[in-house]
Design goal:
- By secondary structure, the protein is an alpha+beta fold.
- It folds into two domains: about 30-170, Immunoglobulin-like (Sandwich), CATH 2.60.40.10; about 175-295, Sandwich (Immunoglobulin-like), CATH 2.60.40.
- The chain is about 20% helix and about 45% strand.
- The protein is built from three helices and 19 strands.
- The strands form four sheets. Strands 3, 5, 6, 8, 10 and 11 form a six-stranded mixed β-sheet that branches. The protein has a five-stranded antiparallel β-sheet with strand order 2-1-4-9-7, with no helix packed on it.
- Strand 5 (about 80-90) and strand 6 (about 95) form a beta hairpin.
- The longest helix has about 55 residues, at about 295-350.
- The radius of gyration is 47 Å and the shape is rod-shaped.
- The N and C termini lie far apart (about 200 Å).
Amino acid sequence: MTVTPLRRALVVLAVASLAVAAAPTAAAAEPDPKALTWTVQPATASGPDQRRWINASLDPGQTVTEHLAVRNFSRTAVAFSLKAADGYLTDKGRFNMLSSDRPSVDGGTWIDVQEKVTVGPDETRVVPFTITVPRSATPGDHPAGIAATVTSTGGTVNVESRVGFRVMLRVNGSARAALAVRGLGATYTPSWNPFAGGTVRVRYTVENDGNVWVSGTSRVAMSDLLGRTSHDATSTVEELLPGGSRTVETRADGVWALGRLRTTVTTSPTLLGDGQAGADLRPASATVTAWVVPWAQLALLGLLAGLLLGLRAAALHRRRRLAGLLARARQEGRQEGQESVLVGGASAAAEPDAGDAHR
């Protein structure tokens, strides 16, 4: 049988139609986090409140119920995963919570929240969660965070996008606030301008050695060999969680010193958060000694000393030369006087007597 071009086209169209009909329905594409916008914030049972994060002072073994609100600003409904984890501060001082691939061992394990919530477009959903403090919990702060996340798959890599807030959990009991100073070092760089002081660069690490959330101040004071203070400055220590640390660098210009230069850093903690009004606030300090040689000033002093010695030698030379000239002049004067006396005596002896001539 001869297959005409029209018959062949109809066969191909029929096969294609069967293939499309037999193909399984494709799964719905995962939402792109870049196209989604949402917020998560503390709330009451009726809706979002004005808190930026949750502060809770609890006793060991106590359980409380809190709420969070998830608002979806996107045009489609989104299923969010709700997760809690231990909290920490980044090197730049921003609060963050452990990623999903890192297990929590502290406050993040005390929070129990439902795993997922679906929020429609431009809708807000309030979700309750509970905080249960273990009976064995130690006094002090146990920071955590809670977030609504969306996970997208890009090849073999899962990308987790999350928005959340911090949950500062404080267990009532003995609270200790201390900012220890570690690794203090000071270096002195002299100025090559003899009329300007040198520069001292100070570097140290402030570590939260207590069990509560604190900020504070640090004071840097420098004193010379005679105990005179040449620099005294106070700066702010940003918030630090228990066990956290931050490196501080400061610079002091125009420092005049010779010999031993002592640099002392003193910290004073300030308690953050609610409760524990009777916390033990412990100031701390550390001292380091540097030896200072102001080469430019010493070179100037050497130059001035050389100049003075040169001027003194020149003046002494002038005095000696003047004394020599005066002595020579006096000697010449005496010689001239003696010669005048001799010449005058010889003339008087040669003149004839008048009486003798008459005879």
